[in-house]
Amino acid sequence: MRKIQFVPPNLKELYQDNDKKWESLLRISEEAHSATSIEEFVAFIHVILADLVTAGNFFICLYDESTSKYFFPYFEDEYDTIETAGVNVGYDESLDVTLYDLSGTLTDYVRRTGNPVTFPNEDMNKLYDSGEITLFGAQSTSWLGVPLKLSGNTVGVMAVQCYDNAEAYSAKDEELLVFVSDHIARAIENVRAEEKIRKQHLQVLQQKQAITDSISYARRIQKASLPSPLYLDNILSDYFTIFKPKDIISGDFYWVREIDGFIVIVVADSTGHGVPGALMSMLGVTLLNEQFRTFGIRQPDVILRHLRNKVKDILAQEGSASDQKDGMDMAIVIVDPEKKELQFAGANRPLFLFRKNDEYELFSIKGDKQPIGVHWEENEFTSHSIKIQEHDSLYIFSDGFVDQYGGEKRKKFKTSNFKNLLLSVQSESMKNQKKVIEDAFEEWRGSNEQIDDVCVIGVRL
Is the pTM of this model over 0.85? Predict the structure, then answer.
């Protein structure tokens, strides 16, 4: 015959209480890993505690040591509001919370002593009578508050209260809340840390978006400073432009104008890329506009010298070793259609000119090895005069294309390959040349990052 085991009522009740405790802790632990905000998490705690004690009126407040004030992640009460529970002392941006002064309250007493308090009791009545504790808000008939502790330090208070039962909370209820309070304190701290990380991440994303929006607007301004396709179509019969910023905005730029029957074509490569390069490029466009508006057509070497002086003056470059080497490289071509002649000068940039005799022949005219800006050994720039023939093709460009890493061995494209690429497309229209050149760049780059701004202009004369 099977023996029936008798469990005393008090021991059975103890088992049930322990089961409730551990089940509650398990649910709190699980929610702590999935909660997206401290308010959401504490609201869940409220639901769990309501199964354990009378908890229709419940709050958790956390203590801020830097201000000696409290803030409430959660407050639920049938009579009171947070504002009547303490003195509102204002919003703290660093914590993203409203702080309250709870000095002299029962809540503050629990935090200061680090001990749980069940009210009413004789000791608390004496403290009220002596004025050490002050009553705030609607007066409950029963109140139970326990400290929330982390590593022995009290970081806040969790409390429940009842308005219609003076014996709502027993010693067993106090013991139960103390038992779960340490676990709740750790869980709250973890959720707060996760929430802080999420807010910081969101703030970074918002700041990044704001910066990106500003730079995108700057791109519109930079694009407006470049000659429009409609304007270029009116002064050039067969041409292409390739303009590929590394970032949203570019340190490279091109400048084309028809002035007094001359066609002026410029490609420039400013120091850096992105925002710093774009600022230099806008300076370059402004100086070119001023140069030709003030002086009209001059020899390209004179133009480069004038630009160098202006850049050094604006950037306060005096030639000392401590000067920032800001400036730009530039190729400038001035075409005289009537005399069938072009003038070229370059600051660290060349001119490639292709001419068809029996075969296509490349004429490479080097620029001077010095920038527009301060340089350790500054010399005069050199102008080159070239008689042009019908169907000659000229190309000026920044160094972004030839310096791009790619290919199977991740090497630079190099100038020699660029010359061969241009030679291979000479029988094509400029429109087709652009496509072939752009495709060649992307094929060479592959999955590698674009390392610099790219700007190329090709013109068939």
Answer: no
